[in-house]
Amino acid sequence: MIKIFTYTWAILKGMAITFKYFFIRPVTVQYPKEKIKISPRWRGTLKQLRNEQGEETCDGCRICEKICPVNCISMEVYKDEKKNRRFTSSYTVNFGRCMFCGLCVEACPKKCLVHTPDFEFCTYERESLILTKDKILR
Amino acid sequence: MIEQLKNSGFEEMTLNMGPQHPSTHGVLHLLLKMDGEVITEARPDIGYLHRGMEKIAEKRTWGANIALSDRWDYIASMSNNFAAVLGPEKLMSITVPKRAEYIRVIMAELNRIASHLIFFGTYGIDIGAFTPFFYAFREREKILDLYESVCGARLTYNYFRIGGVSADLPEEFIPGVKAFINYFRPKLKEYDTLLSTNPIFMDRTVGVGAITKEEAIDWALSGPNIRASGVNFDLRKDDPYSVYSEFDFNIPTGKNGDCWDRYMVRMNEMKESARIVEQALEKLEPGDIMAKVAKVIRPPAGEIYTHVEAPKGELGVYCISDGSTMPYRYKVRGPSFVNLAILQKMLKGLRIADVVAVLGSIDIVLGEVDR
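^ Those are the sequences you sent over. The predicted structure of the assembly is below.
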């Protein structure tokens, strides 16, 4: 009899706590309709920046390619004799391999490779996860 | 009785638990030999999540290995980062700036709270109480939000660097941590009412799967599992790394080493972690967050073993450097892997219904068991 009482009392005490949260605003977010604010430091997909004149800043130093632990960045570099600097003719990031560690962004000496706050990059095909230069240079 | 049954044609039965069982916390496969309801032999079968982390590490630079270390114990990545940076730092004899050390301690202790919250939530589910899970994840979400504001990721942080940390704290971080601790303290009392002192929960856990002091030492347990058996072993006190010697905190220990003790040690550890975080916040002063380190990291040839007190136990990294940019050998001592071994001894003689209670109480992460 005492046992029944203690067990019921424990359940009631637990219920009191859960009942308290009936009257508090729910913490759940109805995801596709409303979205949480994302921190500006969020490590999402990659993007290359242009300078003020609208030219590309990347000079193809290949540091991001070398530092990537999963080898997901690949590029081809040529030298422009007129402007006397190097440019990338192709710059491909395979986001199927990328682990979003952020080492490439940290290592970039020109600070032209940055993260975007995107987090929704699901696709139907693997091929569309391979982003070429026209999609990365924005 | 058992003899009679055997004579009349009943035999032992082999039962496969996992690798897709929801209560095995991942892809653990348990081979159970059953005599009716009693277990006569239990054999954990691991390797479903093996990624060859130690071999991969030999072909990655020292800096990239920190990013890979996030994937060992993926719910306590900060502690993994900690273990991964201490070795090369000692080899290169780098002194980390004070501010970076305190930031590291804050991060590691918040991660301990987050990891134990996951244990609290999932252990409730294992036993049959569903509500604590939602409460635990609600609190953990706040810690993840804090981490997101600092390093930009919610699970694989990759925040520590050899010689410091990757980014300074944002403005809203310190008030955020203080608010979290004030919010979190009263919640622990709620958890006690909900689960810890609940008689149904205690019936399932008190006296189940007890480990004696000697057994715990013999099987090389570490972390909350060995402390629950009454052994006062904590690397933060016994072999202080980083700045842990400056903080005032207690090490909660248990008495009987049963499931309930292991659970309570973790609950009390969360309180102590909150205390350490508060002290570290007070000592935090403006300053550098990175020591002066060469861009290409080449530790001098030599070997070193460094260990940290991860939420699951002693996480050690033994690395050999041959003076190049990549480690020659990178051995990881995962606490989950070592703690899992005692399961085959604990389960012998228990009922089938207790398997999940015992397995949940040693708190393993399969990412670290298999690596």
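Chain A touches chain B at residues 6-7, 10, 13-14, 17-18, 27, 38-39, 41-43, 67, 69, 99-103, 106, 115 (CB under 8 Å). Helices of chain A lie at 2-20, 63-67, 103-107, 133-136.

Shout if you want it in another format.
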